[in-house]
Amino acid sequence: MKSCLFCKIVSGDAASDIIYENDDLIVFKDIHPIAPVHVLIVPKKHFTHLIEMVTSEDGRAVLSNIAELLPDIVLAAGLENRGFRLVNNCKEEGGQTIAHVHFHLIGGRPLKLELP
Ligand code: 5GP
Ligand code: ZN
Asked: Which ligand places an atom closest to the C-alpha of 98?
């Protein structure tokens, strides 16, 4: 999608600090980290939000790929010996600000239940 920021990051038209990549997904550092480690797991294919993703066969395949690769992604993020939080904000009321599905992988400090 031409106007989508994360599609531009996927295509290389916008800069990002990539820590992991395969054919289906890219993982890069969040520009406004809320913890020492804060990366975004982003499918290369554009899905607007999680529900759009899981209601398509392609999207479910990518989600399953993310699940399979999670240990490798956690390792690339340097969180293999620590806990972490994996978050998806879905649609406006869920706090989603970028309309291209993504998962926040957050860690490197103790996290409490924070629901701003
Ligand atoms: P959401 O609020 O949609 O769940 O998360 C969007 C995330 O994208 C936010 O944590 C925000 O800091 C991050 N973000 C917004 N613009 C950029 C950008 O240009 N580059 C990177 N790396 N992260 C961004
Ligand atoms: Zn997109």
From this structure: 1
